[in-house]
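Practice problem: predict the structure.
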Amino acid sequence: MSTPLRQRFRTWIAAPVYPWVTGGFLTVGAVAELIAFPGSVTTTIGVLVSSASLIWRRSFPPIAILTVAAGLLGFAGDVSLYLSIMASGLIGCYTLGRSRVLHPAVAVVGAALGALSVNLVHINTWSRMDLPVPALWEKGSLSLFAESFLLTVVIFGAVMMGDAVRSREETRNERDLAHAQLIALERQQAAEAERAAIARELHDIVSHSVSMIAVQAESATYTTPGLTPEARDGFQQIAGTARSSMAELRRLLGVLRTPQGQRDTALTAPQPTLDHLAELVDQHRTVGGEAELRITGQRMPLPAAWELSAYRIAQEALTNVRKHAPGARTVVEIDYGADRLLTLRVHDDGPGPGSGPHSDTGHGLTGMRERAALVGGRLSAGAGPDGGFLVEAELPWGTW
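Answer:
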């Protein structure tokens, strides 16, 4: 059988309708066989029950015990073996091994004892039919049990075939699982290698540049003559911001260089939360910006991802104000809505969006949208209702 045909055959066998079709087909065949060759009441009941019970062999595998028992009962009621009994009995024994309803040894021994019982019933029937039946102690009496021996061999083969198929599928499933785990491990290792490469680049480029900014700003307050107090404070603020950036950069590098299983221990510094918004607004004021923080609703602790996303969005929005609308008045609003919706608005009275850097093509706006989407929210950015530029983020926190 070619591979496409074998695959179609396996798909058909695995279909939910397969046991209903085969069980129904055997039941119809059993009825036709009983009409053509009527048997006793015992045989009729055994043939019909053995065939019809196969319909439920997949949804309820223990019913295969009834299938085999009814088949043996039907065979015991008549010296002739119906083809429907033979087919349903084989399928029932296969199901016992395939589904491990019983241990294969128990199933074979039980079915063999049933076959022996049927054989004894037939020997008694032959005696009442005045057929030559030798006594058990006479020569040739062992031939009387050829029937039970043959049935036992057939039952053993059907049960073992079902058990072999079950073992092969379990082996294939274990192999597929091991292969999937190996692929996942390789992907994890590749991702860790990529994170290590990113960490090296950040350390070699960004870390060096930020540290130089901190050193130069710190030293400028001592080496530059004639600085006004305001200028000296400005240099100190630049140095402080650079040092804060270096601390966050070190934490990020630690996360990138730490294996997945140990990542939680790498977070040695606490992540900023909404409680730090006041400090963020104060930092904006110290560099010459005019800002106000407004909070409405009842403050409640949110998951770390929500707190961090809202903080970073506000941070990026204030940075954009300093870059594209210096001197503008900014209002940062936080609303802990009663409908379990956190709303963040950053509005300035600057020139508003245009064709310059404040347009919708910057990486900062894209990053803010990605942070909002990360927690199932949305972010809009554009002209405010009273002019200026408005960043509004809605972060639902009622589904976490």
